[in-house]
Design goal:
CATH superfamily of the largest domain: dinb family like domain
Order of helices and strands: EHEEHHEHHHHHHH
Strand content: 5-15%
Number of strands: 4
Distance between the termini: 52 Å
Helix content: 40-55%
Number of helices: 10
CATH architecture of the largest domain: Up-down Bundle
CATH topology of the largest domain: Four Helix Bundle (Hemerythrin (Met), subunit A)
Number of domains: 2
Length: 258
């Protein structure tokens, strides 16, 4: 196995925005390339600057060439990199992995599952607009509207997805929980702009916590049983992905109707 390492430095103020950009570009492309067995995006604050390192694992140099081209030592950059980075380092480093623990297949699978979950909320989701795009221009009035008699409002769906995303994460942490603390489809606490902004923020943070938990999974975690449930961790994570996709479609439809 071969490790490919690239470093770049941004201003600290650009750190979060650049991390999201790298997830949507380099990390996604690396993980999708045949021969990749894992991707790690690392960062470290250094005074007023932030150093990033992208460490990817590969089964061979042939796999690396599928991503990097004929000159695998040459760094690959994306259109917006120059806007963020203080310098464009021309080369990358490759290392032979002489010791490793855990399953290579599981590292790849866990990373892919975490990245798919992340893209559903922030990024280029495979099914259509991500959640942050769907909700960006929705007003509190539209969110609280009920265009389908007897159906849920868009706001209620947001609270529902938030609650169950939190449940999925808690179950991954070995907590036995049946449903969200606030119920399956809770009503908004208040129909105000501030309450709507808070609802969207809670959804974003719940999703980020779930993504972080999935990204930390190992081979035994994926194959293990969920506490108090008769299914595996892998089944739960894939169910969380399907749950978000399903309700994203509903949110998109209600947005158009409202």
């Amino acid at each position: 196995m071969i490790a490919r390492s690239w470093d770049g430095i941004t201003q600290a103020a650009d750190s979060d925005e650049y991390a999201d950009y790298v997830r949507r570009t380099g990390v996604t492309d690396l993980a999708a390339t045949d021969g990749n067995v894992g991707v790690y995006l690392l960062r470290r604050r250094e005074g007023g600057r932030t150093r990033f390192r992208v460490l990817s694992l590969w089964d061979s140099m042939e796999g690396i060439r599928r991503f990097a081209g004929d000159d695998p030592e040459r760094a690959r950059y994306y259109p917006e990199d120059q806007r963020f980075l203080l310098a464009l380092e021309p080369r990358v480093e490759h290392f032979e992995v002489v010791a490793a623990s855990g399953s290579r297949a599981a590292v790849r699978e866990a990373a892919a599952l975490a990245e798919e979950l992340r893209s559903l909320a922030h990024g280029d989701a495979w099914h259509g607009p991500a959640l942050d795009q769907l909700l960006a221009e929705v007003s509190p009035e539209s969110a609280g509207a009920r265009p389908v008699p007897g159906g849920h409002t868009l706001w209620e769906l947001v609270l529902h997805v938030t609650g169950w995303t939190d449940v999925f994460r808690r179950r991954l942490e070995a907590e036995v929980v049946d449903e969200p603390d606030e119920g399956d489809f809770p009503a908004p606490s208040a129909a105000t702009a501030r309450a709507w902004a808070d609802a969207k923020d809670r959804l974003s943070k719940a999703h980020e916590r779930l993504v972080a938990r999935v990204a930390a999974l190992s081979d035994p975690d994926l194959d293990g049983r969920v506490a108090g449930r008769d299914y595996t961790v892998r089944f739960l994570v894939r169910g969380a992905i399907r749950h978000t996709v399903y309700h994203s479609g509903q949110i998109g439809l209600l947005r158009k109707l409202a």
